[in-house]
Amino acid sequence: MTGGRGRWTATLIAVAVVLGWLVVGGIAGPYSGKLGEVATNDNAAFLPTDAEATRAQDLSAGFLEKETTPALVVYERTSGVTPADEQRVRADAARFAQLPGVVSPLPPPIVSQDRQAVQVIVPIDAAEGEQIRQVVHELRDIAGPDRDGLTVNVAGPAGLLGDLIEVFTAIDGPLLLVTLVVVLIILLIVYRSPVLWIFPMLAAGMSYSLASVFVYYLAKHDVIKLNGQAQGILTVLVFGAGTDYALLLIARYREELHRHHRPWDAMKTAWRGAAPAIIASGITVIVSLLCLLLSSLNSNRALGPVAALGIAATLLVMLTFLPALLVLGGRWAFWPRTPREDQADPRAEHGIWSRIVGFVARRSRAIWLVTAVALAALTLGLSQLGATTLGQSDLFTSRTDSVAGQEAIARHFPAGTGSPATVFTTQATAQQVAQVAQGVPGVASVRPLTQQGQAGPPEENAQPKVVDGRVELQVTLADPPDSDGAERTIRDLRAAVHKVPGSDSVVGGFTAINVDTAAASTRDRNVIIPVVLVVIAVVLALLLRALLAPVLLIATVVLSFLATLGLCALIFKYVLDFPGVDQSFPLFAFVFLVALGIDYNIFLMSRVREESVKRGTRAGVLRGLAVTGGVITSAGIVLAATFSALAVLPLVVLVELGVAVAIGVLLDTIVVRSLLVPALAYDIGPKIWWPSRLSRTSRAGDRAGAEVEHAR
Question: Which domain holds residue 645?
Answer without folding.
Answer: 351-398+523-711
